[in-house]
Design brief:
This protein is mainly beta. It has 2 helices and 28 strands.
Length: about 350
């Protein structure tokens, strides 16, 4: 009986030894953060250097060329942001997929801007500003909070509200833009937007957004609506189908820039309020690179000379641009002033 126990233990030991030798442990080795236009070398390693039959490498689901257990990735083809790396490994009678990520940051630092105040105009202190746009001599504005969300047409010099409608109280209104004589207005967490007649403010239809997280800011170029969702992503929507066709990730040379809020397209660049930071970031819409940062913290302090603001709530939000007269307007949530400013590169 004793001999049998010894024999069984011996065979169990051999089984475990054999089984352990068949266990493959893989990892993908590479730099985690790299700058745009650099090359990233990715290598599949097996912990004990066991041989494999074949390795296929993928970036964002697309196969890339490789040599043996390594591949070289040219980040200029990717753009900034996080990108998924995968390796499909073929080894004796088995396959396994290993996943990892690289984070590509911009290859240059953003330009920093200060500002000069050109003019100040009255602004409704009860307007919790979410969207702002200049169109044909007037400002169009959307305000937020459930039960208080409105769409407005505003006279610039006096701040007088010339036309207004209320949003259904179940929705929290967010950013807006005017495209092809229609007003497009987002809501926050309902994943729904609305389209209005520019002249009458009559609602004509609604639309859903399914890929982006929430509704925050909205602007447009000549062919697309451009939308933020509170993350580091900016989405491009087909104005006919309202489907999200693509997105970019927004990065400086050091990190992702999230909490992107109200948007305005100015001279081909996306200007975005950075929520709660009283700053505007200037973004290349093709690459997602932050080319400039406008520090407007002292503009908030200027407001506080005449009005007490609720910290972390009544913040800078609202960008409008008069292209014909090269006028840049900004305001904030419940701010009593609309500012016309010019941005000046910091010396």
């Amino acid at each position: 009986m004793k001999n049998n126990s010894v024999l069984i233990s011996f065979f169990c030991f051999l089984f475990l030894l054999t089984s352990c030798s068949d266990v493959y442990k893989f990892s993908l080795q590479h730099k985690k953060q790299v700058t745009l236009n650099s090359n990233v070398e990715v290598t599949l390693k097996e912990k004990e250097d066991k041989p494999v039959n074949k390795v296929q490498f993928f970036i964002n689901g697309k196969e890339i060329s490789s040599e043996g257990n390594s591949a070289s990735i040219n980040t200029s083809n990717l753009g900034v942001g996080k990108h998924k790396i995968s390796a499909l490994v073929f080894y004796p009678e088995k396959t396994k997929k290993e996943n990892s990520f690289i984070e590509v940051v911009a290859n240059k630092a953003p330009v920093v801007y200060n500002y000069n105040i050109i003019n100040e105009y009255p602004h409704d202190k009860k307007a919790y500003t979410q969207g702002l746009e200049y169109y044909n001599g007037f400002l169009y504005e959307t305000t937020g909070r459930r039960g208080q969300s409105t769409l407005r047409k505003v006279e610039i010099k006096t701040g007088k509200v010339l036309q207004k409608i209320d949003l259904d109280k179940k929705y929290f209104g967010e950013g807006m833009t005017i495209f092809n004589n229609k007003i497009y207005w987002l809501t926050w967490q309902a994943k729904k937007g609305f389209i209005y007649n520019l002249e009458t403010f009559k609602q004509e239809k609604d639309f859903a957004y399914n890929n982006s997280k929430e509704g925050w800011g909205l602007t447009h170029n000549e062919t697309e609506l451009i939308k933020s969702d509170g993350t580091q992503k900016i989405w491009f929507l087909n104005p006919e189908t309202l489907k999200e066709q693509k997105s970019i990730q927004v990065y400086t040379n050091k990190y992702a820039v999230d909490n992107l809020n109200e948007l305005e397209l100015i001279n081909g660049k996306i200007y975005a309020n950075k929520y709660q930071q009283n700053a505007i970031v200037i973004i290349d819409p093709t690459t997602g690179i932050v080319e400039g940062i406008a520090n407007l913290k002292s503009l908030k302090k200027e407001m506080e000379k005449t009005q007490k603001l609720v910290p972390q709530d009544e913040v800078l939000n609202g960008i409008a641009f008069d292209a014909e007269n090269n006028r840049l307007f900004v305001t904030g949530k419940n701010w009593g002033k609309l500012f016309e400013i010019e941005l000046v590169k910091k010396q």
